[in-house]
Amino acid sequence: MSNKIIHWFKYGSPQSFYPLAGKMIPWFWALAAIFCVAGLWIGFFVAPTDATQGEAYRIIFIHVPASWMSMFLYIVMACWAGIGLSLNTRLSSMMASAIAPTGAMFAFLSLWTGALWGKPMWGTWWVWDARLTSELILLFLYLGFMALQAAIDEPRRADKAGAILALVGVVNVPIIYFSVKWWNTLHQGASISMSKAPTMAITMLWGMLVMALAFWMYSIAVALQRARAIMLERERHTDWVKYAVE
Amino acid sequence: MQWNSIGEFFAMGGYGFYVWGSFGVTALALLIEPLLLRKRQNDVVTSLRRERSADERQK
Amino acid sequence: MKQADALNQAGTLAELGTLGVLLAVARRDLLLALRRKSEVMTVLFFFVIVVSLFPLGIGPEMALLRIIAPGVLWVAALLAAMLSLNRLFAADYADGTLEQMVLSPAPLGLLVIGKILAHWLVTGLPLVLIAPLLGLQYDLDGRALGVLMLSLLIGTPLLSLIGAIGAALTLGVRGGGVLLSLLTLPLYIPALIFGAGAVEADISGLGATGHLSLLAALLALACFFAPWATTAGLRIALE
Fold first, then answer.
1. Which CA distances in Å does B37 have to A221, A237, B41, C54?
2. What per-residue confidence (pLDDT) applies to C13?
3. What does the pLDDT look like over A90-106, one tens digit per residue?
4. Is C183 within 8 Å of A144 when comparing Cβ atoms?
5. How many domains, in total, are found in chain C?
6. Residues of A in Cβ contact (< 8 Å) with B29
7. What is the pTM of this model?
């Protein structure tokens, strides 16, 4: 069955993508490690102590990149899912399912580090700040996507249903963000604004960017790895899988 | 460099728990995820290999 | 018997106009709902009971109740609307009517809009009508009750529209009910914020126009996108 699919481009089919991904993964791991070491070096040894927040602000070097990645990965996931839905390509849908758990993990890390940052700075583990709240909702959206795909046994139906949910989610994310922001400004008295980030020294910005790059490379490596496993699991009865695991 | 000793580095100006709590959990998550994936991949590959050798024996 | 209804419908659908098709489907669903009144009543009672439970959990202090009233009423409406969602397509899916609808010459999107309209009339509208009564329990004044009704009037169709997407996606999926709530509740958040916010803004004297018009804008957006996504979801479920 799998051999009769029209190839949109050379690596659009699992059997040619599987070995290619296998070759690419170590490179992305290496890049992730390099950027991670560089980012941590900047974060801990180059960036100066913040005048108002002391050393606690160093959480920013993982908190902000993790938040960026969680949002970015949702968009990438929705793009793959949308391509999978409209062009009916198996590989794109597999990529979407491969990205979701990593995105959810970054959303969780963003919340976790946000809580650990909030406690010493504002005295509470959780503030109903617009950004933290949106991040929480983003985590719910990821969990919904994963739960829906897990509940449907037939892979192609799971792909398509997940794709529609991801697309609906991507339309909703900006609406949710602005509504939460609006809600937050109306209740300003009750909450603490988190937008007063420490005045950004240029080294801090660099540290964050390099860490974001590290997370990005990590995400690619992990998503490819997961996509490879999904390919084998789903297409276990096809010929190419039998040769791939030689 | 603003750290005079290792102890000072780990104390993080009194915020050690929060800073290392964040970095530690992040590091843990980023280590566990690839390990779980490697296990998943190995499980699929071994089960596929078993299937294949069973097929060959049948022939 | 219902299947015969549907087959009957497929033949006559082509002769009805666009609006006719929509109304025919809505009428059929309304008739079915009237035959099983208990479902409508369950949703309504759920709404009433949840709202009445909050003072028991929080305490009878009127000043506090007045503050939480918009949020409580809206969250209860959200949950009540969700309770009825998995029945939106389930019965038609089970007896094959839905398949007939997909095959019928009338555009599926239109039929979906008809079903959503019926769902709102059966589950959303009663909530709107009973809300002022519950608002009295929370000592809301006449103006706030009016705004509450208005916000629910704009908001509950929005809930039905968004919920229909989730209902279509979880059709025939195991653990569908719980999954449905996991999928739709995050998407309900903007409706909750602007709906409850409208009442709150009115109580605090800020004026509810801004919230209500944003809610109406969301409704317009959902009217456009939700039937499309629901149709796609149904087609996938029936593949």
1. 11, 21, 6, 46
2. 54
3. 889 999 999 999 999 99
4. yes
5. 1
6. 105, 108-109
7. 0.87
